Each structure stands twice: as C-alpha cells, then as structure tokens.
Amino acid sequence: MPSIELTRAWVQFLVPVGQIRLGRMPSHWGLGILVTGGGSASPLVNGQTAGAITDPPVGEWGDTLIGTTSDRILFATRPLTVYNALTRQDARPTPLILGIAYDKLVEDRLAYPPGVEEGPIGDPPPPSFRRESGSPFSFLAAGADDVQQTIGLAVWNDPDFNARNAAADELSVGLYYVNRTQEATASDVHIFDGYWRLRWSPSPTMPSLYTAGEVLNIRGRSRGLVLAGGCGSRTNPVALCNEMKADIWGAVARLGAIDRQDHWAATVEWGHSSGDPDYFGGELTARPLHPDYRVGLLMYPVVMAVRTSTLGEPLRPLWSRGGVWNSSYLYSQLRYQIIPGIQVHGAFLVAWADELLGTIYVNQRDDASTECGMFQGDCGLGWEADLALRVRWGENDVMRWDTELGLMGAGPALYADDAAARATVGGLSEPLLWTIQTRAAMVW
Questions:
Q1: Most buried among 15, 146, 296, 396, by the most CB within 10 A?
Q2: End-to-end CA distance of the chain
C-alpha cells in the first residue's frame, strides 16, 4: 500500500473573462446535501464563506469520510464584472457568478460495485463494465460505462450584504442543474438543486438573523439498477435491467440567530429525504442525502448506516452510508464561545421515518402500510442529544482538538419493546446507544 496517495490534482488559471479549472478536483454545492468536497469547497463555485460560527464546514460532527471528486473541466465567470470592465474600466468583483462544467465520472459502477468481478446473478460483468486496474491514467480511457455529466450553475454571492449594519452579514443564492448520462445502462438523469444563505442584522448593535437551506430533485430513467429486475442471465449476460424511473426529493432549512462577534449562535433545522414504499415498484423515490452532510453522531452516521446495509449488495446504491435516509428530522443546535479558541456545542435531534419500510424499520402495523407523517408515533426513529468541546489554537486555528459525546434513545420504528415482537419484526437489541469520540488534527 502506498504511503502517499494523490487523490486530487488540478490546475486553475484566469482568462480575460473568467477562470478555468481542469483536472481531478473536489465538487461542492450549497450546503452539501447533494455533493460536498469534504471541507474542500470552493467559494468560486458555491458562494460559501468560511468562519461563521453557525455555518460550519460540512461534517463538523464526527468525521467526513466520503468527499465528492470529479474529473472536470470548469469555466466560471462574473458577467457583470466583465461588462463593467469593458464599458466603465471598473473590474471590481460583482456578486453574479455563472459557470458551466463537464465531468467524466469513470469511477462509477451502477450495477457492479468496485472490486466486485461478478454480477448479482453470479455472471461475469458485461465487457463494457470491465476495466484495467493497474494503469494510473485509466480515467482518460473512453468506455460505455463512463458516466458523463454536464453542469450549469448560477450564484448570487454578496459577502458585503448589509455592510453598514454588520460587516459579517451576507447573502448567497444559487441554482444548479446536472444532466447525467451513461451509455451502458441507458441512463439519463436530471438533477435540480437550489440553495440560499442569508445573514442579516437589523442594527449595528443587534445579533444577526440567519437562514439557510437547500432543495434538490432527481428525476430521470436508468436500466442499470438490478432492483428493477429483468437483468442479464447466463445465456445473455449483457442484457440490461428493466427501466426504472426516479423522482427523488431532499431538503434542509435552517433558522437561527448569531451574535455580532460570533461568540454564540443558535439554530433549528428541518430536513427531509424522500422514502420509497417498494424498491421493486418501477419508480425509485429514495436516495440518502450526502453522507458527509452529518446530522448528529449516532442516529444517521451509525444506526441508519448499519440498518440500510442489510439491504444487501445488489441494493448498495441505496445504502445511506451515514447520510439522512428515508426520513424527516428536527435538529436544534447551540454554540457558545467560552474564551477565544474554546467552544462548547450542544445539539438535540428527533426524527421520523418517511416510509415505514419493513426491511429497515420496525413495522408492527396490521395492514403493513408504510406511509408516515412527522410526529406520527409508530414512525418515530427516536431522539439524540450531543455535546462537544472544541479547542482551536495556532495561527489561523491550524491545531484542533474535539471531544464529542452522544446519547440516543431509539423510537418505535427502530426498537420494539416486546421481545417476542422484536424477534418477528427485527430492530435494535437495545433502546439506548451512546458514543464518545475525541480527535486531534492539524488543518491547513
């Protein structure tokens, strides 16, 4: 195993009308529920600014393990700046950013996970799914299994919004569109995503009001998911699966207040990831939010990651891997700076299933129906309380030490009180779970 692994490398340079980036780079958008660079987000693309106490980098709780990486060529420009420079000789940055990008996602395998050399029926994968594993430049090779993406984005990013009242106030709004295709699986997927972020203070002496959110919808069709049935047989191993359509929704919204000096902040967040009552029904409506969009320490990163893995290898694309999955939640957070460099951070989470799918959740209904609503008793995933002490020191807070504690009480959708029922419908073996985590790091 190599001691050093280079996972991302790209070049970026200015041209008279904008900026071009080319290579293998992190991909991030908005708050990070669709794609996140794992803390390596670029302000050019998503308008995100760093340092606000209530708007932490993605994955503040626990570890970010799965960043989004793309082989991409990107062009971004500030059209109003270009216009002003040509007509008024004024080249100061303006808030509007437009961008287009092309991605070649050669690492994707919709039907055969990495390292698996047999299909779900025991056959070897079709020739279009095979690849050379030893070439360091294999990502440059063409192939029907490569996923192509074209992206368009528009961002209005004003970091000086309301500057007369509060220098830290900002406004950022963005729209993001992706068309994703794959020849080998006849896939054609459209992704629509919008986000906003606003920090506004009514006067120079009052705290800032804060709101942020992101909404995504994934639509399209594919013949690459084995759950659609009708896949290749031993006599015809290259046959595609039956066509499956998608209509997937995800959203988060935050509301809170921030101290003018960022000494304290309080937020409440609602989030949703649409569920699916039947994975084999011809329409896919469930997909987790990005795993590095961390909500708490236990419920989603641990419990739901383990529970969804029981779906088995053919349904690997539907595992949560720690992301918000088939549920809605309410998440409140409070932060307070004890002294410069030392913060205490508390959070409380409650969540409910969106579809009470019996293979993952505990469904004790007589009619086995799956439809749920927020606050519906038998759909409750439970509650979680988290507490953290965060220490930062050194120039630009380069040294960091976090200690986090979490306690979770499982709800009826994850734990059955009656042992006999639990033996029948499954679920967790204990109603209470806890964790304690500490980590030290140098960040540059």
A1: 296
A2: 25
